[in-house]
Design brief:
With 412 residues, the protein is α/β, with parallel strands linked by helices. The protein contains 13 helices and 18 strands. The strands form 2 sheets. Strands 1, 11, 12, 13, 14, 15, 16, 17 and 18 form a 9-stranded mixed sheet that branches. Its EC number is 4.1.1.20.
């Protein structure tokens, strides 16, 4: 997506605006499948939570991907694409037995992450195959908020509780058909990841009817020039060899699963915002844009870095700016960032905005959610309209309330 095209889209659809390049999505999907091409049975389940627009889900369906979901609603979104329910895996955390039962009725693969629900579900529905999420007690991930496989994490069943899982299976006669883990996002250390996979292999050996092992995802993508990322190709070589060995040891060809989200869509997305005000203070030059953390919360929530370019003046002289939003509290996208000279009305482009950006947006300050555009074979398609005040008011009920004190005052 070139600057001229992005400027045309900002003019056509207004700002702020999310834009997604499907060519990049497809290349990332092909890169991952190629890295594990030596595995007989490979299945990629796109993590819906990263970017849940139904047009994106349809695109992944057409690529041949399954879907990784974490809520009943995400399952419903996936089913609207016409995807086979059997190609959807449902991995919630701390939800009620009722929700899991409702999802099970839809025919998707159930993945359970705690002993209490596992036992309750097994007692009532022993005929439904279930995957179990294991906590390998391994720290991985670039931020404490997205590291989910360590010993103090709320996610998964501890590896030390595998005997309890086996006892539940024995008592309920339920069928465990898959083993799952997710250590965290922004994985860099391949050796740490491979150490966790060995733990899963050891667990899988203890169950007779395993059809797949889901190794999660969390592969790191580069966020700025010179940034490091997960070496997918090297991981593919090492894990594929070990996985194929395990299949021989286990006695059958099971499926290797991943649930990538950020890896597939992060670099494919950009966020466009227009500069309202350039404000000079005694020590800082602020570029105020027509957005805030209501639309892009990651810098404030995770201290994440999003490379920012001025696509209205890409060849301008570099200066230093703090890029901030219009929310009625601190909402800083970047501090003292080197960007080509900014003028009011310029359009700034926030890169790596495809994952966990729109999907985490809100109506804070009663601001509208932005529009979304998808580029397919060079052509732009509006895949979500910008909100209006009608959308803000939708589902709000107006209640007529009379004030007793006011009436008494008027009468007096």
């Amino acid at each position: 997506m070139e600057n001229t095209q992005l400027l045309e889209l900002a003019n056509k659809y207004g700002s702020p605006l999310y834009v997604y390049d499907t060519d990049k999505i497809e290349s990332q999907y092909n890169r991952l499948t190629s890295a594990f091409s030596s595995v007989k049975n490979l299945k990629l389940n796109y993590a819906v939570k990263a970017l849940s627009n139904i047009n994106i889900l349809k695109f992944f369906k057409n690529l041949g991907a399954g879907l990784d979901t974490v809520s009943y609603q995400e399952v419903q979104l996936g089913l609207t694409t016409g995807i086979d329910p059997k190609k959807i895996i449902y991995t919630p955390n701390g939800v009620s037995l009722t929700e899991i039962e409702e999802v099970a009725k839809l025919g998707v693969q159930i993945n359970i992450d705690n002993l209490s629900i596992l036992e309750s579900f097994g007692q009532k529905h022993p005929e439904i195959p279930v995957c179990v999420r294991i906590n390998p007690h391994i720290m991985a991930g670039g931020n404490s908020k997205i590291s989910v496989g360590h010993i103090d994490s709320k996610f998964g069943i501890s590896i030390h509780q595998v005997p309890h899982i086996k006892r539940v299976v024995e008592n309920t006669k339920m069928n465990i058909n898959g083993i799952h883990m997710h250590t965290g996002s922004d994985i860099l250390d391949i050796d740490t990841f491979l150490r966790a996979t060995e733990i899963l292999f050891d667990v899988a050996k203890q169950f007779e009817n395993i059809d797949f092992i889901d190794f999660g995802s969390g592969f790191k993508v580069p966020y700025k020039e010179g940034d490091i990322s997960t070496d997918i190709e090297q991981l593919g070589v090492q894990l594929s060899e070990r996985f194929n060995e395990f299949c021989v040891e286990y006695g059958k060809d099971i499926t290797l699963m991943f649930e990538p989200g950020k890896f597939l869509v992060s670099e494919a997305g950009v966020f466009l915002a227009k500069v309202n005000v350039v404000k000079q203070t005694t020590s800082t030059v602020f570029a105020h844009v027509d957005s805030g953390f209501n639309h892009l919360v990651r810098p404030m929530m995770y201290n994440s870095h999003h490379h920012i370019t001025n696509i209205s003046n890409p060849a301008g002289r570099d200066r230093y700016y703090s890029v901030v939003g219009y929310i009625c509290e601190t909402d800083t996208f970047a501090s003292n960032r080197r960007i080509s000279e900014i003028s009011e009305e310029d359009v700034l482009c926030f890169h790596n905005a495809g994952a966990y950006c729109f999907s985490m947006a809100s109506n804070y300050n009663s601001r509208y959610l932005p529009a979304e555009v998808m580029i397919v074979d060079g052509k732009d398609y509006l895949i979500r309209k910008r909100q209006t005040i009608k959308d803000i008011l939708h589902n709000q009920e107006v209640v007529e309330i009379s004030s007793k004190k006011k009436k008494e005052a008027v009468t007096a």
